[in-house]
Amino acid sequence: MSEPKPPAPTSTPTPGDTYKGWLFKWTNYIKGYQRRWFVLSNGLLSYYRTQAEMGHTCRGTINLATANIAVEDSCNFVISNGGAQTYHLKASSEVERQRWITALELAKAKAVHMQAESDDSSDDFPTAAPVSAQGGSSCISEVQSTLRTLSSKVEDLITCNDLIVKHGSALQRSLSELEGLRVGGDTGEKIRQVTERATLFRITSNAMINACRDFLSMAQSHSKRWQKALQMERDQKIRLEETLEQLAKQHNHLERAFRGATVLPRSFSNPTLADKGGALVKGDASDEDDDNEFFDAMEDPAEFITVPADPKFHRRSGSNVSGISTETGTDDQSFDDLSLASNTESPQPLELEPVRQRRTVIPDKPNYYLNLWSIMKNCIGKDLSRIPMPINFNEPLSMLQRLTEDLEYSELLDRAACCDSALDQMCLVAAFSVSSYSTTVHRTAKPFNPLLGETYELDRLEEYGYRSISEQVSHHPPAAAHHVASQRGWTLWQHITIDSKFRGKYISVMPFGNIHLQFHSNGNHYVWSKVTSTVHNIIVGKLWIDQSGDIDIVNTTTKDTCHLKFSPYSYFSRDVPRKVTGVVEDREGAAHYILSGTWDNKMESAKIVESSQGCGGTEGKQKTVYQTLQPKLLWKKYPLPENAENMHFFSSLALTLNEPEEGVAPTDSRLRPDQRLMEAGLWDEANIEKQRLEEHQRLERKRREAQANQALDEGQDIEGYQPVWFEKRTDDCTGESTYVYRGGYWEAKDRQDWSLCPEIF
C-alpha cells in the first residue's frame, strides 16, 4: 500500500491553533491501517474518513486531557484514554510523527490546565453581579480572557522546555555515537539519523521561540491595559455599592413621603358617599411602619358598595327594606349594648385582677447577622419543614405556642357567648378570626418546629376563664392539635397542618385544616380555616409579611355564613393596606352586616338597612349597593409593649407564653432546651442543642420504622405513632378526619402522673 505523504503544516502548532492532517489509523486485522483525516482543536482529537465529512460526520473523538500519548517506533504512536478509546496511528515519516507528537503534547498540557482552571473558576474568577455600564462588563471579559491566554502561554513554555531537553539529549547521544564510529558503511546511516535529530530539535526550538515571542508580545501589550481594567473594576464596584445604598435611602424617603401625603379615609366605606351621609366612625386610620416594604399585587375590585343610610329612614320602619328580615328594622340596641359593651375607642380586656404577676419583658434579641439568601437559595420549591434551619431565623416560641397565641383576644368569644342573635354572634366570631393575624404584622421569624409528641399548655382559668392544651401529632407533614375549654361559655378546637414552600423571592405558609368553635348556651357550631401567609423580600430588602385569601365562616347550626376577603397589598391600590372586608348572610343568602377593617389594627361592622343593584361591575355583573348604619367597632388591636422591637415584636400575651411554669408535662415547649437558650440570647449554644434534638428525633423515627418492619415481617399489624392526649375521629359536621382532645391531661397534671409522655428532650 502506498502511503501518501500528508501536507506539511503551514505553521508550527501552538496552543489554541487547529492542527489538521492525514494519518493512518489501525482499523482491524483485515483492513489494517486506513488513511483518515485528523483534526486537533480545543484539546480534542477527532477524525473523519475524508475532509468533506468535517461538516456533518465525525467518526470518533478523544479528549486529550485524560489521554496517554506513547511512541512505539519511528513512525507509529498510540493515544489512549484509559481503555475505552485507543487510537493506533502511523505517520508517513518520523519528522511528521514528531510534529503530531509535539502538537498533541502541547494540546494535552493546555487541556489539563484549562480543566483545572474551570474547577477553580468559582474562586479565581467569581461571577459578579452585572454591572450597569457596558464598558465595565467588556473590561471584565477582556481581563479574564487575557489572564487565560497568558497562563496558557506559560504552560506552552514549560512544555516546549521539556521537549527541548528531551530532543537535545537525543541529539547529544547521536553526536557522541557519530564521533565514536569508524569510517565505514554505517556512516551514511548515522549521518541521516543525526540530520533527523537536528531537524526535530530545530522544529521544537522554533516552537519554543515562537511561544516566547507570543508571550512577551502579549505581556507587553496588555500589562498596562490589564492594570487599568482591574482598577476600573474596583472603582466601579465601589460606585455600585454607594449607588445601591443611596437608592435604598431614596426609596425609604419616597415611601415615607407617599404615606405622609396620602390622607386615608376615616371609614372603610365609600369616602364621597360617607361625607354626604355624615355617618363616619370616629377613630384614627391604621398607622404604618416607616420601614415596611410591600408587594405589588393587582387591585381586586370590591364586590359591593356601601352607602350610609339616612337615620330618619332607619327610625321609620323596617318594612320597606327589600330582602332584609324585620330584625334589621328594629332599633340597634341589642347589638350595641350586649355584643359591643365596651369602649369603642380603646377596648380593654376584662378587668380581672390576675392571681399571679406575669412577666412583661424577655432578654433583648442579640444582633446576629446571617444571610438568609445564602441558605434559602438551595431550597426553592421545597418543603421548608424538611430542611434544617439555624435558630437565627427563629423566634423563641414553638408552633404550638403560636397556635395558642390566637387566644390573644379571647374576650371577643366571651362577648359572643352572651349574644342572643346568631348574626351578632357571627360578627364577633369573624372579628376573632381576623384578630389572630394582628400579632404577625412584624413577626417575620419562624417559630420552632415542635418535636413529635411535644405539648404546650396554657392555664388562664383565673385570669380569662380558659385553659388550652396542644400537641404535635405528626412530624412529616407537621401537624398540631389544639383544644381550648372556657368557663365563659365556649369551646374551641383545631387540627392544623402546615405546608411551607420557598418560591425564590418569597415564602408561602399555607395552613390546612379547620377551626371549630362551639357555644354552650345555644349550641351554635362555627367552622372556618386560615388564610395563606407570605413573607416577602427573601433575596433583598427588609422582610415583611402579608396575609391574603378568603375565609368562609359557617354556622353549621343555623347555616348563617360570613365571607371574609383578605386583600393582598398593592402599591397601586388606593385602599387601606392589609384590608379585610366581609358580608354576614343568613341561611337564605340575605346580607345583614358589612364587615370592614384591617387585619393588623381593627374590625368594624355596619348593619345593612337596604340593598339594591348598582352599576360598575365586571363581566356584565352589577355590584350590590348596601345602605348601612354607622359602623360599630368590633375589635381593636392592643398596643405592643414597650421595647417590643428588641423583644421579637412579641405582644403582652406572647411575652408570657415561654415563661417557666411548675408542674407542666415533661414534653412542654417551655422545657425545650434550644428554645430556652435562644430566649436567653445564647444562640451558638442553642444551635448546637437544636442539632442534638433533631438527631435524637431522627434516631427515634428510625427505631419506630424498624419496629414496624419487624412486626410486618412477623405478620403482626402495628399502628404508627399515636398521640398521648389527642385521637383521630371523623367530624360530624365536615366529614373530615381530625384529631380531637381525648381528655385526661389536666387530671394527669393534678396527679403529676406523666408516665404516658414520651422522652423527647
TrEMBL record:
Main location: membrane
Keyword Transport: yes
Coiled coil ranges: 230-257
Membrane topology: Peripheral membrane protein
Location of region: Disordered: 309-350
Gene Ontology terms: cellular component: cytosol; perinuclear endoplasmic reticulum; plasma membrane
GO MF annotation terms: cholesterol binding
Subcellular location: Membrane
Protein keywords: Coiled coil, Lipid transport, Lipid-binding, Membrane, Phosphoprotein, Transport
Domain PH: 16-109
GO biological process: lipid transport
Polar residues bias locations: 318-328
Pfam families xref list: Oxysterol_BP, PH
Superkingdom of the source species: Eukaryota
Matching PANTHER family: OXYSTEROL-BINDING PROTEIN, OXYSTEROL-BINDING PROTEIN-RELATED
Family to which this protein belongs: Belongs to the OSBP family.
Protein name: Oxysterol-binding protein
Native source species: Nothobranchius furzeri
Gene that specifies this protein: OSBP
